[in-house]
Design goal:
Elements lengths: L6 E6 L5 H7 L1 E2 L8 E2 L7 E7 L9 H10 L4 E2 L17 E4 L26 H11 L6 E7 L12 H12 L2 E9 L10 E9 L3 H6 L4 H8 L1 H5 L2 E7 L4 H4 L19 E5 L2 E9 L25 H11 L2 E6 L5 E6 L31 E2 L6 E2 L3 H7 L14 H10 L3 H17 L1
Parallel strand pairs: 1-4, 1-6, 4-5, 6-7
Antiparallel strand pairs: 2-3, 7-9, 8-9, 8-11, 10-12, 11-12, 13-14, 15-16
C-alpha cells in the first residue's frame, strides 16, 4: 500500500465521535476554528461511513453533536437494524465501534447480566450480520471496544459471550488479538479499563507477516495491540477452546455448565486460541488528575454547598447494611470507603454515565480547589479532558452539562485509539 493512500473506515455506534477523533487526528478547541485534522499516521485514516442511533430516545443528543462536528456526509442516523450492506461504502479497510455494553456493564451485577441474549448485547449480531453480508468486501481489519466484563459474561456460563464472538469472527475469516487495557497504566489521565478486540483477515498480508512470531510474542509486543501497548506475561494458558470455536450456532444449544477462563489478553490464529494474563510494560510519564483541571473561573453550580457536604461524605464512607432479598433471605451488604476528595496526584477514577448533576453520589468525582479549599465536581471540559477530547467538544445548543457528562461516561479514552491507529498504520505501510 502506498503511503499516500488512505485507510477507509466504517464507524459504527459512533456516539459523539471518539474513534473518529482518535483515528483522523482532530485536535484543538471545538468551539473555535482551530478544531481540525492534524494527521501524523504514515497512512491516514478517513471515516467514509458512520452510524449513530440511540433506541427508545426521542431526541438524539449524541447524534446532534456528531453531525455538528463532522457534518452529514456518509453519516446515517438510523438504527443499525435498518442498515443494509447496500448503504455501506464499496471499499472499506477498517470497521470500528464501541458496541453498546449495557448487558456487560459494571453498572449492574454480573449475576443479572444477560449477555448476548440481552436487548443491547444482541447488537453484536448486527455487526456479525453486516460482516457476513459484505462477504469479500468485508474490511480487512476490525477494532472493537467494550467493557472488560465481556470476558466473563454471563455469570452462569462464564466466557460464553466472548467465545461466541470469537467463533463468529473465526467463521468470517478473521484472526483476533485482544487485550484489556487500563488507560491509566499507560500514562493516560483516567483509570478506565476496557477490552479492545483487533480482528484481521486470515488472508491479509498482516496475518502472513505475524505468522513468523509466536502467539505470546504477538500478545506482548509484536501484534497491533502488543506494539501499541507492550506487556509482560504473568500467566500463560494454552489448553483452550478448540471446543469453543466449534460451539453450536444458537445460544440455547450451549451446555449450561459452559465455562471458559479468558484472561486479560490473548490471540486466535487460524482457529487456535491462547490466552494470557499480562501486566503493562510502560516506563513513560503518567498524567495526574490535577493536570486536566481548568484554571479559569468555575461556575458556582459545580461547588458543593456546606449543607450538602455531609451527604457527600456519607455516600463516600464505608457501609455495612443488612438487606433482605425478595425470597426473604437476609444478608449483609458492605462496601469500603472512597477517597474524599479525589486524589489530585493520581490518574482519575473511571468516569461513569451518572457523573453529571449536583445530587450527592458515591461514584462522582469531587476535588478540593487548592486556591480556595472549596470542594467541587468536575466540569464538562474536565471530563472531556479525561477522555482526551478537545475542550468543549460536546458543547452545543441546549445540551445540558448533565448530558455532556453522560457522553463522557459512554466514551473511550481517545489516546488509546490514537496509539492503536498509529500501530496499524505503521505495520500496513511496511507490508
Amino acid at each position: 500500500m502506498k503511503t499516500s493512500s488512505k485507510l477507509k473506515v466504517i464507524e459504527l455506534f459512533a456516539g459523539v465521535g471518539g474513534f473518529r477523533i482518535g483515528l483522523e487526528g482532530w485536535k484543538g478547541k471545538s468551539s473555535t476554528s482551530n478544531f481540525k485534522k492534524k494527521i501524523s499516521n504514515k497512512i491516514p485514516f478517513e471515516i467514509t461511513y458512520s452510524n449513530q442511533w440511540e433506541p427508545k430516545t426521542k431526541r438524539q443528543h449524541a447524534n446532534e453533536v456528531y453531525l455538528n462536528r463532522f457534518g452529514p456526509k456518509g453519516h446515517f442516523d438510523i438504527s443499525i437494524d435498518d442498515i443494509s450492506v447496500n448503504d455501506l461504502p464499496i471499499k472499506c479497510d477498517l470497521m470500528v465501534g464501541g458496541f453498546p455494553c449495557q448487558d456487560y456493564s459494571v453498572a449492574s451485577t454480573l449475576r443479572n447480566s444477560k449477555g448476548l441474549i440481552g436487548p443491547k448485547g444482541i447488537l453484536w449480531w448486527q455487526i456479525e450480520r453486516l460482516l457476513s453480508q459484505l462477504k469479500s468486501k468485508a474490511p480487512k481489519y476490525l477494532i472493537l471496544e467494550n467493557v472488560d466484563r465481556l470476558l466473563k459474561s454471563p455469570a452462569k456460563q462464564r466466557g460464553r459471550d466472548f467465545a461466541m464472538m470469537l467463533r463468529s469472527l473465526d467463521n468470517l475469516g478473521y484472526n483476533v488479538e485482544w487485550r484489556v487495557i487500563n488507560a491509566g497504566e499507560y500514562g493516560f489521565p483516567q483509570r478506565r479499563r476496557r477490552i479492545f478486540i483487533f480482528g484481521f483477515k486470515k488472508s491479509s498480508a498482516l496475518s502472513k507477516y505475524l505468522s513468523k512470531y509466536t502467539k505470546q510474542d504477538i500478545v506482548e509486543s509484536k501484534g497491533i495491540i502488543g506494539k501499541a501497548f507492550p506487556s509482560s506475561t504473568i500467566l500463560k494458558k494454552e489448553k483452550l477452546i478448540s471446543e469453543k470455536i466449534l460451539l453450536p450456532k444458537y445460544l440455547n444449544e450451549i451446555s449450561t455448565d459452559f465455562d471458559a477462563n479468558f484472561l486479560n489478553a490473548g490471540v486466535m490464529i487460524n482457529s487456535t486460541i491462547e490466552t494470557y494474563k499480562v501486566s503493562p510494560k510502560y516506563d513513560g510519564p503518567f498524567s495526574r488528575l490535577s493536570d486536566i483541571l481548568q484554571d479559569d473561573d468555575i461556575d458556582e453550580e459545580f461547588y458543593i454547598s456546606k449543607s450538602d457536604e455531609s451527604k457527600w461524605k456519607d455516600h463516600k464512607g464505608a457501609k455495612k447494611i443488612t438487606r433482605i432479598t425478595k425470597g426473604g433471605y437476609e444478608y449483609n451488604f458492605s462496601e469500603g470507603s472512597m477517597r474524599y476528595p479525589d486524589d489530585l496526584d493520581k490518574s482519575s477514577r473511571t468516569i461513569i454515565t451518572s457523573e453529571g448533576g449536583a445530587t450527592p453520589s458515591r461514584f462522582k468525582h469531587v476535588i478540593e480547589c487548592k486556591m480556595n479549599k472549596k470542594k467541587r465536581r468536575l466540569t464538562p471540559i474536565e471530563l472531556e479532558r479525561l477522555n482526551m477530547f478537545p475542550d468543549d467538544f460536546t458543547k452545543l445548543n441546549d445540551i445540558t452539562n448533565t448530558k455532556r457528562a453522560f457522553f463522557m461516561g459512554n466514551a473511550l479514552v481517545i489516546g488509546i485509539v490514537e496509539k492503536l491507529g498509529n500501530s496499524l498504520s505503521s505495520y500496513i505501510s511496511k507490508l
